[in-house]
Amino acid sequence: MTDKPEKLLRSVKPSKVIFPIIIGVGIISYKLYNEWNGDIVNLLSFSWFMLVFILISFIMMILRDVGYMLRLRILAEKELSWRKCFNIIMLWEFASSVLPSAVGGTTVAAYFIYKEGINLGKSTSIVMATAFLDEIYFLLMFPILYVAVGSVALFAVGGNIYTDTASLFDNKYFYFAVIGYTLKFLFTLLIAYALFVSPKGIKNLLVFIFRLPILRRWKSKAESTGNDLITSSLELKKKSFKFWLKAFTATFLSWTARYWIVNFLLLALIFGLPNIDAGSILTFGEHILIFARQLVISIMLLVMPSPGGSGFAEVVFSDYLGQFIPVGFVAIMALMWRLVSYYPYLFMGVFVLPRWVKRVYSSDKPTE
User: How far apart are CA 26 and CA 214, in angstroms?
Assistant: First the structure.
């Protein structure tokens, strides 16, 4: 928060939209070129069930955003209007889409909240709380789904069936998942310790580390981050169990809705093809497995340096979920998935960001 507003906004400027689009579309175009079979694709025909399931997939994404907005309202104790929450979430998602996955939109989220009228300390505590709740969701859901579907099914990629746990070590995606989960686990421990145990201790550690000659130039920022942690801790320690339960329920709604998008897109595809028994292809257990694999994909994206995981997301989607998709439609499904869950935020950011900047800088006091 010590950076100038212009510098913060420059990191999420609309012109950066083109880079992740080029990466993602380029990968999908290459896969489409290699996979395309006109005879198979021509079998696809419109049906009302197909349209319904496509609409439901978009509804899932809307529910995700509604859950985020609801959580923001809860954490801000209703000091933010629904319109302000919408603007913040769209800008937040836009920032996540144009910044590397490991960085995400949280680096500028506190600034967006602050400019909507929430004081600096509370803005920081809200962002810290959202990060904590998101990580708790992943840390809880991954082992639950791991047990529910089994390690062999969870990491069977591209039709390769791993007959025992030991053979998982031949699977590159297993290592991505383990690294991503470990990073999330350590990050959550750090946040929990900093917010609820010893924020001053973490601040002192940061200051000590950034006294090293190679890091000394960022010492003032480390001190500022430490002060933000202390302020956030004072804000969040006094919250009730009911407060946290409501916020986590909204978090659960958001992420769970997002991970059902692919399931409904697959159903749309199935009902667009002739002579296919949807029940025999996608049982309830397979739907849960698809859901579980999407969660693992999100964990793996954490270790990718490209904006929004572009490129890697499309590749891992094809490999990781390809066995559930009819032959000839894997690349098309990857494109549909990104069109529903990723690209809309790029274009919403281009639309919302300039108007938001104009509004919040039009006067000293934020307006509705």
Answer: 38
